[in-house]
């Protein structure tokens, strides 16, 4: 069963095509990370997944049920979209009590357990309007989790959190998935999302430009061996003669992209020493995630 599926989902705001024919499938137990720059269309997509805005075209299926006015599985969905809304003059506990009653929950231990889980204990009686952005986000997450939903739809869930909070949310999501939940979350930071998502969708200008697993992401990062000697043009000729893929970069260093050279850089060092081009420096360079992300969105087909 697919927990979430969209078919050619499209939304236009005047001249802006905010979401352009997006089809995605999310399986149970996945943490699907939806990644895009500001304005890429993430929030619009999540709002359509929640029925908060109506698509111009396409369909959404949650738990294989088509989203419509008759959709009846909202109790299985938890969400956090943009800055979480809370009753500003109610405390953290009171805010959660409102949602507890609206959801007709019957487990009085649930609220203290969540306050504990989201490390909101110190602020339990603080009015929502006086919380920091990070703690408002924690309260938003607590509300999303209150009814123990099977599917969580989270728009930028780490917004406003400090590095420790980001790690805690990551661990929390992993724990929820271990208990059987499925998560769909958006972010504009690949480095962050790559740490938690099992699969990634990259969105740019409303279009899904790439989908890949975390493993595929690691394999697709560019890697090269950077070498410098006292005579780089001479070393380049030597290595080319031996059949290596090598070039001089803008800094006049040797860049070797052969997989064999990357696996065994010591062989390159040995060859260069034998031919009289002793390396002064030799290191492996790996593309970072942000560079990868920018490369993918810039190289996309028109
Ligand atoms: N209600 C609206 N009216 C007009 N344009 C809108 C509306 N909502 C979104 N847009 C436009 O649609 C595009 C996608 O916006 P969206 O908020 O979905 O992007 P996003 O990826 O969530 O960005 P961010 O990370 O900044 O929230 C943007 O160009 C935005 O200006």
Automatic annotation (TrEMBL):
Keywords: ATP-binding, Nucleotide-binding, Transport. GO terms for molecular function: ATP binding; ATP hydrolysis activity. Residues 4-230 form the ABC transporter domain. The keyword Transmembrane helix does not apply. SUPFAM superfamilies: P-loop containing nucleoside triphosphate hydrolases. Gene3D superfamilies: P-loop containing nucleotide triphosphate hydrolases. It comes from the Bacteria. InterPro entries: AAA+_ATPase, ABC_transporter-like_ATP-bd, ABC_transporter-like_CS, P-loop_NTPase. Belongs to the ABC transporter superfamily. This is ABC-2 type transport system ATP-binding protein. It comes from Rhabdobacter roseus.
